[in-house]
Amino acid sequence: MSHDHDTPSKLEIATHAILPLVTMLLIEMSLNHYFAPQNAIFVSPYLLTFFTVCLISFVVLWKGQICPGQKGRLTAILPWLLVFAVGNFLYSLAFTPKHSPALVAGFASVILPFIYWKLPKDEDIYRTVIYCGLGITAIGMVQYLLIYWYEVPSLFNWIRANNFAQILLGILLSGWYLMLAKSRLEGFLKLLVLLALVVLIINYVWVIFVLYQQLAIMPEMVIYPYFIFFGVQFVILMMLAWLLLGKQGKNIKNPTAWTVATFLAMLYPLTNIL
């Protein structure tokens, strides 16, 4: 019997799956504890990212032409999303000074990883469970987005929890997980990269628009953090371009490009404290 020595162990896969989730938790908790205004309402700057990953994952499991091995590897990774979901929900519930308007979205996020954990084998039940997962994801996303239109509507909060930056990170993290699962969906990965490029451009335009509005209100505000932000976004752009290089999509699974782009995209909330 031959063994593939390049196949990562379960511990290695779990470590790589958890690493970005723990990083996001640490960033959001640190920012809220040390830099948020006193008694400010806490809303996770990564919850929309979480739902974006879930949405893309459900689409892959529903429509993706993947073999049982690929599906098994992917469904071994996705339940680890529970680390972020539970950590964020408990922090929002117990360690923030005011009520969290994202409790419904937070509760939805806790439910979703359990769906990945034990998907049924019966085809009809499988599709029904996927539809339920998509529905819960949609509810969570809508409730989260409504927070910034009704609960805390302001330019400061719209840039503080940049929805486009979150969606970009969600797309990149989804691709990173597919790469980790050794998915053979090269065409879908290319589609994710192209979608990430579109969202990246929209994010550039959005941040420039909000920055212009803020400067009109506060001409004395410091803007150098945004130059750092744009520089980081440019590096992400280069990583996405790198993934598209090569004939017949041979570079689309480049782990360095996916890792650099994903973890740089994760740093977007730090713009608010520089």
UniProtKB/TrEMBL annotation:
It comes from the Bacteria. The keyword Transcription does not apply. Keywords: Membrane, Transmembrane, Transmembrane helix. The chain crosses the membrane at residues 12-35, 41-62, 74-94, 100-117, 129-149, 161-179, 191-212, 224-245. This is DMT superfamily drug/metabolite transporter.
